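This entry is retained here.
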Amino acid sequence: MRVVVADDVMLIRSGLARLLTDAGVEVVGEAADASELMRLVGLESPDVAIVDIRMPPGHKDEGLVAAREIRRQHPGTAVVLLSQYLEPRYAERLLADQPAGLGYLLKERVSDIAVLVDALRRVVERECVLDPTIVARLMQRRRPDSPLGRLTPRESQILRLMAEGRSNSAISAELVISERTVEATSAQLFRKLGLEPSADVNRRVLAVLTALRG
């Protein structure tokens, strides 16, 4: 897996690159700003770009803008955005696009490098991986007429864990139920959300999109 890391703070950028390298990930470039990030992605065609949301020159949403541009110009490159703070509005802007191959995590979550590496692998496989805190906040904003209101508590639990990027086996372990039960319950929630049978990853992504848009 080939990765580009973008963060304007050198210690964070270099430290993250070192941790990823030690974990067996190939870091093919480091960028301190959005323009350098775009240049590296165009040059190296990485599998995934790790991008800090707030980057120079304005330290507002330059990373988010660059991430959306990467997804437009280089659809084969997945993106994981990192944020210091919980900012649901940024997640909502990202979800306005196709969420497959997208991750959004709080920086505190990736202090465990295994969590980040797992997220990278999932987005490269075109899944959507969102921080549990962001998932919880967005799902609280459910509209009164949302199809999510038809879900049972168990189906809602499974959908929330899907949005966090959990596999069926991980959901099974978290909820202490069998994988077969996870699969059956997932099929039920897909039907309730009006998602026709298709590739499993596609339905999971569409279900997550429905959940987070409320």
